[in-house]
Amino acid sequence: MHARHCAYQIASKQIFDFTHYNYCFHSKMTNLVQPKRLAAFDFDNTVVFGNTDTVVRELVTPEVPPNVQELVKTEGWTRYMEEIFRLLHEKKITREKILERIRCIREVPGFVRLLKSLHQANFDLIIISDSNSEFIREWTQAHNISNIFTQIFTNPAQFLDNGLLTIKPYHHQTECKLSAENLCKGKILENFIATREVDDFIKYENVVYVGDGTNDICPVMRLSENDVGCARKGYGMKRILEKNKTKLTAKSKLIYWNNGFDLHEQLQEHFKYGDLPDQRFESPTCPV
Question: Which domains does the chain carry?
Fold first, then answer.
């Protein structure tokens, strides 16, 4: 019998050596872990050229009442959008009219092709966004990319039978001061990575985070030296990171981008994956 073993016999009874059993189990699980790469994306002003909430808010005419506008300061953006959706319902703005607005938001140039190229290069793709589930589902389905995402994290929303769009916060947190109370993107990213390793035996050897706004700073600050943070030029995340270099120091490589084409070039140079797909992607038909 080998000196080291996971079980042994004493007086014809099977006795487990749990210390070595744990060693054997850990070794087996380590062998099962698959190394992969992860790319996480914000949605508004990152994937789509605009903000899904403000595009829909424009349907409120003539203007948003002051008492509703005040909710942004007193109760936060999600509560504010809840009232915006109620106003739209009162004004008989239909579900189809709202979703048409969402479908017709342009992509950030080259972004659909970028997402498809990363998917083809075996990156797992996720979205972490302060938009909502109805808007992201509608846009990604209309642009034929809903099936390339491993998971989407956002505020849950649904249309009721009477046509009212309802929305709830993704979660409630007060620990992270870089994030809104309803959505800490860094916490979501870390939890997703940990869950994938424990539940699915997938370990991400590289993580890419792509965003534009101030609420995208938190996940970039949690990246490691093996990872890449991507801040869009001309938006809040880049400005704040550059202004606060001593207080907000990222461990990861930082790259700055304008659109999906130049972001692809920089990521391709770093990771050495394939070229952008050659085919054109049809956009949904929208009113002129």
Answer: 34-50+107-154+171-271 (3.40.50.1000)
* Active site positions, annotated: 42, 44
Phi, psi of 256 (to 5 degrees): -115, 140
Report the Cα–Cα distance between both ends of the chain, in Å, rounded.
Answer: 80
CB contact at 8 A, 118 and 274 = no
Range 34-42 average pLDDT: 93
The torsion of the CA quartet 150, 156, 158, 160, rounded to 10 degrees, works out to: 150
Which tokens belong to 19?
Answer: 């210390």
The mean of the pLDDT values for the chain is 89
Distance CA 130, CA 213 (A): 11
CB 286 within 8 A of CB 138: no
Rounded to whole angstroms, the Cα distance separating 133 from 222 reads: 25
- pLDDT 10s digits, 185-215: 999 999 999 999 999 999 999 999 999 999 9
Alpha-carbon distance of 258 to 108, in angstroms, equals 9
Candidates 43, 129, 56; CA nearest to 86 is 56
* Separation CA 91–CA 193 (nearest Å): 43
